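Q: Structure for this?
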Amino acid sequence: MLIKNNKTRAALIALLALGSAAAWPRVAAAETVLRIGMTAADIPRTLGQPDQGFEGNRFTGLTMYDALTGWDLSSADKPSTVIPGLATEWKVDDADKTKWVFKLRPGVTFHDGTPFNADAVVWNVEKVLKQDAPQFDASQVGVTASRMPTLASAKKIDDMTVELTTKEPDSFLPINLTNLFMASPAKWQHFYDKAEGADAKAKSQAAWTAFAKDAAGTGPWKMASFTPRERLELVKNANYWDKARVPKVDKMVLLPMPEANARTAALLSGQVDWVEAPAPDALPELKQRGFKLYANEQPHVWPWQFSRIEGSPWNDIRVRKAANLCVDREGLKDGLLAGLMVPATGTFEPGHPWRGKPTFEIKYDKAAAQKLMQEAGFGPSKKLTVKIQTSASGSGQMQPLPMNEYLQQALAECYFDVKLDVIEWNTLFTNWRRGAKDPSANGSNATNVTYAAMDPFFALVRFLQSGMAPPVSNNWGFINEPKFDELVKKARQTFDPAARDAALAELHAASVDDAAFLYVAHDVGPRAMSPKVTGVVQPKSWFIDFSLVSMK
Amino acid sequence: MLAYTARRIVYVIPIVISVALVCFLLVHITPGDPLVAVLPADASQELAAQLRAAYGFDRPLPVQFGLWLMRALHGDLGNSIATGRPVLAEVMRAVGNTVTLAIAAAIIGFTMGILLGLIAGYFRETWIDKVATSFAIAGVSVPHYWLGMLLVIIFSVQLNWLPAVGAGPNGSNSWAWDWAHLQYLVLPAITTSVIPMGIVTRTVRALTGDILSQDFVEALRAKGLHERGVFRHVIKNAAPTALAVMGLQLGYMLGGSILIETVFSWPGSGFLLNSAIFQRDLPLLQGTILILALFFVVLNLLVDIAQAAIDPRIKRG
């Protein structure tokens, strides 16, 4: 259409210009939202110490909070290691190895605007360790104290320096501290002052309940809105202290979706942009429709943990080694698990600082396995009966029943007769602490509980040190190997990080050489996302940095 | 009527106490540690003992039950172990969502069931009856979680008409009866409605057929009463039994469906129960079961009273 009237044309141009100008800021400021379907059935706890294991830490820990030390999540290729967080440096006292001095990062503020300082560190240590502290919260103790088993107390030296004391010399402390998230004492106090309750304990509980709904940490994401069991909305913290990690997305919405097919449907229908652990049988369709799949080796092990009590068939190292050589892990990976696992050749794989140089090579070699079993006195006409306690489901258990049935068939070819004792997941988990001698083991001589391997205590010490036998910790099979005990002591008391890593590598290599476990698989933390999601780096970790993610 | 109602209410009291005792004992006699949600397997013995004392699990079972019952009578069901939030608030919020779903499903299921049942009963042994009855059989036979997934695949994934999961749009903190929220209700409500629809259809069909074959109906027709009038009598005679069946079905729906609510991530009591079971969250589990059982008991009581109001013979019996 040709507009001949100049006045009309001028008016239209002016109108269009005005319209564009008015619309421009709105377009420029369009909010970017990342919607994530979690596997959790509820929003992990938001008050600073999440529940639901490392998925909790991933979504409501590392997003809203920081710890004194953190994980380097910037690379998909190298193992994730500990880096400075709210502490810039730390050092153990030369004279007393139970005392550590942590220098705090200056200029950091909580989401409520109050400063992060030594008082805040002491307050957060005492929320889980000092029973007579007003902020002490029993519900946060279990998920925190066990992850830093030797931390005893904290003391302010000056505003930016804090002294931490451990019960015994423990070089693992900086790694353990990645689990202690710093919540705002001022915000909590505000709720405490307003709380109603019969006594200080009731007021404290009410304050934590209120804090969970309106939390304040120092992390890259701030709580915007929280609807229990439905959604948690986080917005970016534009003033985050690490400018490189200020989120690129304006808002992140976390949705609990425990059912894998529901998560996958939500992604396929565009209701979410990202799902954790999509339904395995939907992977081809997701790929075909252009969705992106991410997976990487996680510090996680799917094992059989052997009983080493008197009379256990696993006391013979030839039998332990035979089991490790008789499993075609590649077949398990490519067949049953559709590629979603990494074959395990130990707790840590080559390239990890704690791997070491084991001489026993865990691989598939059926002939060698059969030979070892024959040397141990077994054969086609004399099979060795072993009984494994496992579950039908469970956190980190991957696909326990089909995987165990696969092992049952594989080991049958090496003269094993595998019996499975399948029980409910929480019961299996509870029995894990009771040990192979307990009636709850039901005569099993191996247990199948997966474990996280981010921290030396969790990955090695609690299984290999004789003092960690039940009821103390998770040495379910009562391993009693003086060499392991020596190496644990050496690692714990070596404070130079490189030397400590070398000692841990020595311990790990010794455990592989002893075939301490049947090492089967590492999970890969599969996730699927819309092609609109960019900038994702999936590290070799249970965690992921959401700050790096952009939305097209 | 008042005396009958009072008598029914008195009968309910021992039932409620028994329900409380059973649900308390059930969750306590199952194997596994009640603190598994907050007590990692590698926790020290001191820590385990400290937490057991903090949560009161170190006390004898009768003492725990007594304390729990006393608190429950005062409206305090304790706090969830996993979340730390008050159980009563958690349960009531979830029950609210389940009630929303149950009402929607009841409207769909009962309306369809009554209509199909009346049609099938009126046209007994005809092809119309066979079609209506086929719907009813399909309703009670098809696994509803499977139907739910099928509906999601068709209407969410393929057609993109309705959301696949959830109970409201982002930014919403509570339920509202607007399209933004209602669209989340459509698929779970249809899925939930199929079983009651099937059961109500079969019940109403049987009742209609039975009443239509009775002598008094013949007499009414002989007197020249038109079919609408006859039908009014049929409905009045069928109502007490149909109402009882619908009341029971509503009770089941108010209990929430773990499978349906999990498939749709619908944050109702079934979803809550699922979460409480998997996390072994005893206070939450006990509280949820108790509230749901109370709902069921109260609903049965209301149905009994309603039946007695409609049919005086019940009162006399």
